[in-house]
């Protein structure tokens, strides 16, 4: 756990310990999401949902006592003299993206394994022990078997082979060894994780990194059967209420009409828009930021996300939503 915590400070001068904890457990508020985004921690949002708060703070205290971290004005920072590992930036873990895939990663991978198993037995043998028997798995697999029938096994074979060729050899081998099918029985992840990653939280992060890498590649191929199969689960990774707000805005509703239609508070709709801006590279910033407002906000300090909002609103005569959207767009390099 020490190496993991220290790795979080590699790209950050200072982090608020309370908010850092909320990022790791996945507290779903726009303020926590934005904090994660601006500090390059969004891929680790909800990475350890069961993290014990007291033990986490005690671990920070221990690292400060050891002279590896220090606290300044309520924020934690690393000491220059401390040798801090950078494991999260190694190729093994760079594919982690809990924000996009973490909520449904297990369901996605179990679904893929079951679909591949069922397809491998088509026209060969009916008497086998299925990997899954819950309706939420079996019903969807039956639909795809019926939809694609004889072509299913062949197409899935080529899609999976192409995806594994794109992944690193390490991650492709890990995932491939968990697959079961005709004359093949897959292993459990705990049997395959290297000893050097055997301790918490690296063992779960190692597995997640491989799954996230696979899912990220599937998401790039809407022509794949696997994409069609997983798309509903991809959407379930996100705030469903936010997706409803997004749909209305895409249909032409403005903020006031969305509030009236959905009977939500203005702050809730603003939170939805902020979260949408975080997840979507095609977010329509121009719908909410006039050219005049963008000209004003060009003068924002680069690290304006660390400033109090009241100060920014007063100095630039803009709204909270405009400031936040501009900050996000600028970090995405979509706004200058």
From TrEMBL:
Domain of life, source organism: Bacteria
Cross-referenced InterPro entries: Helicase_HTH
Pfam families referenced in this protein's UniProt entry, alphabetically: HTH_40 (PF14493)
Segments forming domain Helicase Helix-turn-helix: 241-326
Record protein name field: Helix-turn-helix domain-containing protein
Classification lineage: Bacteria, Bacillati, Bacillota, Bacilli, Lactobacillales
């Amino acid at each position: 756990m020490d190496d993991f915590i220290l790795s979080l400070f590699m790209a950050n001068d200072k982090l608020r310990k309370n908010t850092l904890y909320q990022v790791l457990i996945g507290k779903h508020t726009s303020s926590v999401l934005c904090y994660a985004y601006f500090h390059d921690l969004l891929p680790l949002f909800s990475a350890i949902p069961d993290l014990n708060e007291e033990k986490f703070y005690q671990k920070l205290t221990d690292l400060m006592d050891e002279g590896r971290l220090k606290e300044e004005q309520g924020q934690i920072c690393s000491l220059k003299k401390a040798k801090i590992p950078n494991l999260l930036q190694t190729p093994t873990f760079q594919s982690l993206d809990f924000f996009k895939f973490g909520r449904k990663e297990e369901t996605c991978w179990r679904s893929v394994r079951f679909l591949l198993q069922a397809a491998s037995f088509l026209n060969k043998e009916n008497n086998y022990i299925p990997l899954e028997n819950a309706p939420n798995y079996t019903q969807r697999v039956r639909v795809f078997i019926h939809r694609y029938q004889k072509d299913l096994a062949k197409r899935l074979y080529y899609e999976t082979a192409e995806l594994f060729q794109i992944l690193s050899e390490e991650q492709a081998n890990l995932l491939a060894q968990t697959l079961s099918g005709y004359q093949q029985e897959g292993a459990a992840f705990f049997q395959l994780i290297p000893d050097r990653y055997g301790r918490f939280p690296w063992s779960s992060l190692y597995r997640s990194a491989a799954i996230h890498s696979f899912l990220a590649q599937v998401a790039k191929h809407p022509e794949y059967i696997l994409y069609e199969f997983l798309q509903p689960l991809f959407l379930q990774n996100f705030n469903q209420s936010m997706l409803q707000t997004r749909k209305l805005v895409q249909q032409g509703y403005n903020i006031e009409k969305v509030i009236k239609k959905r009977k939500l508070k203005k702050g809730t709709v603003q939170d939805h828009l902020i979260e949408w801006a975080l997840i979507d590279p095609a977010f329509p910033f121009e719908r909410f930021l006039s050219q005049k407002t963008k000209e004003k906000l060009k003068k924002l300090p680069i690290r304006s996300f660390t400033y109090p909002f009241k100060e920014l609103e007063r100095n630039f005569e803009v709204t909270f939503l405009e400031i936040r959207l501009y900050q996000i767009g600028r970090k995405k390099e979509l706004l200058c």
